[in-house]
What we know:
By secondary structure, the chain is α/β, with parallel strands linked by helices. About 35% of the residues lie in helices and about 15% in strands.
Amino acid sequence: MKSHSIEAATDEIFKHFDESGIKAIKLATPLGLGKPNQLLNALYNRVKKDPTYSLDIYTALSLDLPEPKSALEGRFLGPFIKRQWGEDYPRLDYLKDLKTSGLPAHINLHEFYVNAGAFKNTPYMQQKYLSINYTHVAQSLADVKVQMIVQLVAKRGESYSLSGNTDLTLDIRDLLAKEGERLFMVGVVHPDLPFLGGEAVVDAAFFDLIVESPEVTHKLFAVPREPLTEVDTVIGLHASQIIEDGGTLQIGIGSLSDSLVQALLLRQSDNERYRKLAATFVAPHFPEHNRLELNRFESGLYGTSEMVMDGFMHLREAGILKRTVQDKGQAIYLHAGFALGSQVFYDWMNTLSAVDFQGFAMSRISKINDLYDSDENSLRRQRVKARFFNTCMQVTLLGAAASETLEDATVISGVGGQYNFVAMAHELDKAHSILMLRSTSYRDGRVQSNIVWNHGNLTIPRHLRDVVITEYGIAFLRGKSDEDVIKALLNITDSAFQAELLKKAKAQNKVSQSYEIPAFAAQNASASIKSRLRSNEGFFKVFPFGSDFNPEELRILRSLVSLKSQGSIERCRSILKGLFTDHKPFASELTRMGFGFGPRVGFKDRLIRYAFLGSLGSKERTEDCV
Length: 626
């Protein structure tokens, strides 16, 4: 069945439920990019107005436009949002209600993964969060007997593609079919959604309802490319040195993954310079120096990743992602469960052809994140020398990790597939799970260590400890005693916190009373990182893969970040500085922010303008950040 409007499709869906005698609707929709927002809004609002129905929405990573937290942020974000996502991007109404009036009592939202930090102060989401391994989500949704999946799809000729969301749709459909349960499948065609291959390709019979409407032409949700810090850059450099040629790679999204990809590209394109950099940042007495990999990639890497993002595009274009495995007679260089990234990445996927298209296979999470199916032996043969990279928030001195929930039980993101890949690394021959984190973070008004003695809400237990990386180096933990694990982690801890942590370990009889931090690790400080980066000028780039902000906006961003961190006294100083700063050199920035100088400008706007101008005047211009 086909429909040519969102309203008509909504009518068909409710007709189906009415004929089935269903008033309690259980709807699933993909995480991230695959949500048909306009149809979801129509369904949500129909139920919202008619409480004779109830609606449970099961999903993850509901994407939303950023909302300014101040008038100044609003001046900056307004034009950027229009350029990045268009003027007609359909925000999810259930998210808008959640952030304002709340959801109606007869509608529930259940998410197993959320945008990092987006709902840490939202009681509803903290209460409704589903803590589930990615591989268990499909069975959980089958257990509650989800009745319908609505999904954005791509079309080419008479074929359809689930595009960047094969992750759970296929597994849920198969599980419910085995139980004899009816699942109503709805596909909403988007003309710009990449047509991807592998298990994503289906025919029209896969769906009960296909929506092809001229209303669905909005921009896809493109994730802005993140800036790298100096710390991120060095973590990526360390991480790049434990990837073997001819191996298997899994990475996620974010600045640490970008820094890893940046370092791999340098390893391939300028190996002499790469080796020099590696030597600069590896301590001369690093105890496991012989475990590092520095050579160029001849055989290349094969990717098997729950998420595919910009990094895999860069690795493919650089000739690194080229090792292939056989899957149903096809040579595959990348298996993935879902796709999310920048507009550049979406454009790249849309233009794939020949072997680049055929070798990029979307698949289901039960295959990507696990081994235990009928193809287990072939999966093991494919995933040789696997390196599974994930990020975490904190690591305990005994090697356990907290990646998604704070000590006080506040959920920041979700487990996702992290546990799956950590456990799989211990099942595969010569594989490693690598957890990356910054050694410190700013919390509760002060710098604190991210390597801690203990944590109350762990994602990864200590018995699955393997490899941990901070800006100060690599800690190989697998198979080591508690004492040796503690020593290795202290070696990559910021020196400001080593003594306190060592004292705690000694008090608990986990480390010999005579043990001292070795000299090569006793100077772990941010100043040392900055100094070594300066001696290798050109390696550190804030946006190594380009930015979605233009140079003018980058200068403005630096000023806004500075203002946001200022206390009342510092803010007054910025206002005073702005009063005596010539505005002419900053005319483009002031115009971009909509600041005028006429007599009708209000007092409050004048103060904001002077604070902004004062902050601009105290910072170097940042064209080099692009």
